[in-house]
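G., before I forget:
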Amino acid sequence: MTVLQNDRFLKALRREQVDRTPVWIMRQAGRYLPEYRATRAQAGGIIDLFRNPKLACEVTLQPLDRFELDAAILFSDILTVPDAMGLGLYFETGEGPRFKNPVLDRKAVDALPVLDPDKDLDYVMAAVTEIKSALNGRVPLIGFSGSPWTLVTYMVEGGSSKDFARVKTMAYAEPETMHALLTKVSDAVAAYLLAQVRAGAQALQIFDTWGGSLSHAAYREFSLAYMKEIVAKIKAEAPDIPVILFTKGGGLWIEDIVNSSCDCVGLDWTADIGRVRRLTGGRVALQGNMDPAILRAPPARIREEVSSILDSYGPGPGHVFNLGHGITPDINPEHVEALIRALHDLSPAYHQ
Amino acid sequence: MTVLQNDRFLKALRREQVDRTPVWIMRQAGRYLPEYRATRAQAGGIIDLFRNPKLACEVTLQPLDRFELDAAILFSDILTVPDAMGLGLYFETGEGPRFKNPVLDRKAVDALPVLDPDKDLDYVMAAVTEIKSALNGRVPLIGFSGSPWTLVTYMVEGGSSKDFARVKTMAYAEPETMHALLTKVSDAVAAYLLAQVRAGAQALQIFDTWGGSLSHAAYREFSLAYMKEIVAKIKAEAPDIPVILFTKGGGLWIEDIVNSSCDCVGLDWTADIGRVRRLTGGRVALQGNMDPAILRAPPARIREEVSSILDSYGPGPGHVFNLGHGITPDINPEHVEALIRALHDLSPAYHQ
């Protein structure tokens, strides 16, 4: 076992004392970095990049070489699980991810195979192993998956969607079919995350990117219930691995999310992090929550926003700094540097 | 003066006793109705439709002839104000609204004219007069405008946007320019709404469709502050006209919105209307909040959802039933009939 040299992130997730607020950035290995664009061009397409453990490892480490980040996150795609189920993932330029074989009815649901992630997603596990070894204890490695509801939106729509017409029709008009689908996907996600832990992931994040498209009741029924089951399975098999639940647009449902036994709730920028802290009373750590668009403003404005988020959270442990959603391709890396510098300057005062 | 034959909607906005929960539907005059599609085809394009007072009146009344709705809403576009300011509104097939002359810098902001809505938007005032006369007291007429922030997103982006990159950059990097722009647009919106009242509108709704894209602090600074000013101006000149503020994605900010002196808060479907009622303690009426996607489900499921929303709001006055956002073009009008039938059957029990 290599010794972990920077445990700020894991300590913050456990709400233990740290010297400064740890930070990582959703999509920190991404198109805003010229070195990422170079590796991706070398790989061919995005699929060739995340299916190649050596290149996935390379891009995972790129932001760590540039910035003093406190965690690495596995470079992969959120749609690996449905792809492994046979849906045929491909990317259309400017259109985002698509599936050749969307799941349109009960017959298609029943035909979905049960996954063995170590075999069916061996390239992901190889990437985790490769990254873990390359990190050599520098910072912890976060494994991740899309939430069942989020994966199912792509599986039923056949790709991205503006109004989730098909997937919501299935949920509202054929709830049994939807629950059968979500059950299958949840089982696969739990197995996938536990396989990532066995391969070396030290924390897990579930990205519920589209949970916020649901009504409050439908969110509990079709998204949160399944994330809860997954957290329970992780806690049963890997009790020491902290789990972060991130529902974009889920700010109204924090009290329900906290009851999932997750260790940390990820917040988008619509929530007031200080208010959420008072509401949750220290039962979970909180991650977030700067609007990625602030990174388009000059460094002085970025510093102001970092200061205001630290101030809103207030003194004491349990805060992981992050954006409220992924960093966008147009951001100047120097502005990320400004964010991290501001956090290093300003956050120690909150941890005395 | 014609006598108003159905005042349920206005009474509910004032939180007065009614016999059943009033209902109207955002975009009730819209593409899901074959008669609307026929009139629109006759007009030519969407611009020709809302610029023609006779046809705008015709489509405004169409849903009332089909369904027992408790209010009519002026058929118009939310972008009439920036169009009248010289931005050159046009519609690209499948792309939505676009502006020929987006507002990209301070110079463009300073060049924006001050509007005289009675002159510069005379076709809207003519439509209000025409509709009011055709209604002949059947139900009250709602006037509306986009919120300043929502209009400004289109004015700066030049059309619809996924991530609001340009408009947020202006807000975060050049806040003085943004405030100058919002001030001009707010003044125009207040004048526009007051002109609609003079022409006959009996209630007003401000559609803040994109306020939910902002952080909590930025929402207060760039959206809510200007809606508050508009409400104050309306209350000063037309104190009896109820004002509804609808911020899509604004569920986390209800307490701030209530402090705007509006009469009613419109909710999207992510909020639990009963919880919002307890939070606001009867200081405002609440409008909403069924997920429009439920209308794709069979009538029995629609009835269940109506029942659950009525039950969540609970007994007593102050509820205007609506969807949480506009009805989509693919909805079967019979399903709207099912919604209204369910509301007529179930809601009287909540008003005894």
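The longest strand of chain B covers residues 141-146. Chain B has one domain: 8-268.

More on Monday.
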